[in-house]
Write a structure and sequence with these properties.
617 residues, Alpha-Beta Plaits, elongated, four-stranded antiparallel β-sheet, alpha+beta, Multidrug efflux transporter AcrB transmembrane fold, five-stranded antiparallel β-sheet
């Protein structure tokens, strides 16, 4: 019989709409102003911290809606933003510097919806607000690192060629190598010049010493700066991905600056800590010649440096760096056989080869893991810019038991939280050069709220106009199309709420408004085809059947071409364009489902298989 669906098709339509509605429902419950408290540098947030924060808020007469520990963080909800702002200052003062207190908007989704993984739609920076950072790359430090590596390379190459030298050191922005005779100096220049074509070599003689001086060429300087900037951009993008921020903006500005925009970020302090941290590792040999008493007094052998471990003890390490964090390709935290925190390290091929070659020749010697971090300095520079101070700490000293390869582990970490934080930074990559945040803006949602309201009004007005037209012009079939239109909106919102990383931006709202207009096109084509079939003398059931069958090809062709355009926009576009393209693609698929499958199911249910004398179309 014509125009009858099997039961499974009706159940499929009901299931799709029900699931979409459940995942779209959290958007109806709004958000609560909240504070998010997390530990700094691995400090645990315990129940005692919760009680302490609640007590201070109660004593100040600030009403708390709820407070709970979630994912090793404390989330305190308030009834209004005034209490939230007052509470932030109070909680931050009460808990001290060991904890980071950040403003937050916490979804007030019911627990039963959270249990199935439903959550509100993520809004972009233009709608919800967020954080804007302007970061500056320390190019001087980037050049210093390259210079230090050049010193190490020169020492290695000269030793391999058995060319004796008095010293190799950084001087005046270049590398100075001192020899005792001219003949050795000339051989060294010839050898090093062939190996280092991007360096400019000159002679520098003083008294009875003969030196060669090497500086980077202009092209090499430009390449180092460009590499430092581009690598930092890549690494910051990786760190943003680790934070789970949807549709971030990370792009260069000028010769040494990077713009980072994090829409809807909940923990701004955590974002600032992760993005700005220049944490990396260095592996060095312990200098066994050093005397403990002399080291404590600050006296170290030539070619070595004095460090301290986490207990404040002096540790003397050789200046030569075996390996740096640049060769780390993966890092994850875990527990060792004694249930102590550790970080498992995986190196790239060159790093693995270097570690294997070195440890093969130094079995039985002690190797130290040095944690290096750059923090804001206490005083600005002469030109008024913020400065950075370098902090280094020995976190692990272990005896090399056997030849190491591309995978090994480091221990000596205080807590599991610190191990996870270190693994995150190493996994996302060590910054090539330190960066400092020279400008930070928290963009409030006031403008975004206006955009949301205007966008919603546009959708409502467009929806009402379409609903009114369809109801008057196509009568009962118009009502069917209107129900399909509402289902289409529910599916779009539900799918975008379900998809990880999907974010609603202002262009996304434009995509939904466009979809509202496009979604009725298919129904118009079908309904007009049904009218044509009725005018040609077909029976009502034949007209309905032929209307859907013959319009299907036209609808498919039109939507496929639009879908291909959306794919191209997504492939070549940036943040806002991608948001529009994603919304458009989801809207096209939803409109085809509701217009072809959804309305057909409803039409079949209401009119299919019945003897009708007249059709309200």
């Amino acid at each position: 019989m014509l125009n009858r669906y099997p039961l499974w098709k009706y159940l499929m339509v009901i299931l799709v709409i029900t699931i979409s509605f459940l995942y779209a429902a959290p958007n109806l419950f709004g958000e609560d102003p909240a504070l998010q408290v997390s530990g700094s540098r691995g400090t645990q947030v315990s129940a005692e911290v919760l009680v302490k924060a609640q007590s201070s808020l109660n004593q100040a007469g600030i009403e708390v809606k709820s407070a709970a520990l979630e994912n090793d963080q404390l989330l305190i909800r308030f009834r209004n933003t005034d209490d939230q702002l007052r509470g932030k200052d109070l909680v931050a003062e009460t808990l001290g510097d060991d904890y980071v207190t950040a403003l937050n908007l916490a979804p007030s989704t019911p627990a039963w919806l959270e249990a199935i993984g439903a959550g509100p739609l993520k809004l972009g920076l233009d709608l919800r607000g967020g954080v804007h950072f302007l970061m500056e790359v320390d190019m001087a430090e980037a050049l210093n690192r390259v210079q230090e590596q050049t010193v190490q390379d020169f020492r290695t190459e000269l030793r391999q060629e058995r060319l004796r030298y008095s010293g190799v050191l950084s001087r005046d922005g270049g590398t100075l190598v001192v020899f005792r005779d001219v003949e050795t100096r000339d051989k060294a220049i010839s050898h090093l010049r062939n190996r280092n074509t991007d360096l400019v070599f000159t002679t520098r003689d003083t008294g009875d010493s003969y030196g060669l001086f090497a500086v980077m060429s202009e092209q090499r300087l430009k390449e180092v700066k460009e590499y430092a900037l581009q690598q930092n951009i890549t690494i910051i993008r990786n760190r943003v991905n680790e934070l789970g921020v949807a549709e971030p903006l990370v792009q260069r500005q000028g010769a040494d600056r990077i713009v980072v925009q994090l829409p809807g970020i909940q923990d701004t302090a955590r974002a600032k800590e992760i993005l700005g941290a220049t944490a990396t590792l260095e592996f060095r040999l312990v200098d066994e010649r050093a005397d403990a008493a002399a080291a404590a007094a600050g006296r170290v052998p030539p070619g070595s440096e004095l460090f301290t471990d986490r207990d404040g003890r002096a540790v003397v390490l050789q200046k030569r760096v075996i390996l740096t964090g640049e060769h780390i390709v993966d890092a994850n935290s875990g527990m060792d056989e004694f249930s102590r925190p550790q970080v498992n390290i995986s190196l790239d091929a060159p790093g693995g080869s270097r570690m294997a070659d070195f440890t093969k020749d130094n079995v039985g010697r002690a190797m130290a893991t040095v944690f290096t971090e750059y923090k804001p300095g206490d005083k600005p520079s002469a030109d008024g810019k913020p400065t950075l101070r370098k902090e280094q700490e020995v976190i692990n000293v272990a005896t090399i038991q056997s030849r190491l390869g591309r995978s090994f582990r480091i221990t000596g970490i205080d807590s599991m939280a610190e191990a996870q934080n270190l693994a995150l930074l190493l996994r996302a990559g060590a910054l090539i050069a330190p960066i400092q945040i020279v400008e930070e803006r928290t963009i409030g949602p006031s403008l975004g709220q206006q955009n949301v309201e205007n966008g919603l009004l546009a959708m409502i007005y467009g929806l009402l106009a379409v609903v009114l037209f369809m109801s008057i012009y196509y009568r009962k079939f118009g009502l069917v199309a209107n129900l399909a239109l509402l289902a289409n909106l529910v599916i779009i919102i539900g799918v975008m709420s379900m998809v990880p990383g999907a974010t609603m931006t202002l262009p996304g709202i434009a995509g939904i408004v466009l979809t509202i207009g496009m979604s009725v096109d298919a129904n118009v084509l079908i309904f007009e085809r049904i009218r044509e079939e009725l005018r040609d003398g077909r029976s009502i059931q034949q007209a309905i059947h032929m209307g859907y069958e013959k319009a299907f090809g036209t609808i498919t062709d039109a939507n496929i071409t639009t879908f291909i355009t959306a794919i191209i926009l997504f492939a070549v576009g940036t943040g806002p364009i991608k948001g529009f393209a994603v919304t458009l693609m989801i809207g096209i698929l939803a409109s085809m489902f509701t217009a072809i499958v959804g309305t057909r199911a409803l039409v079949n249910l209401l009119w299919g298989g019945k003897r009708l004398k007249k059709l309200s179309i």
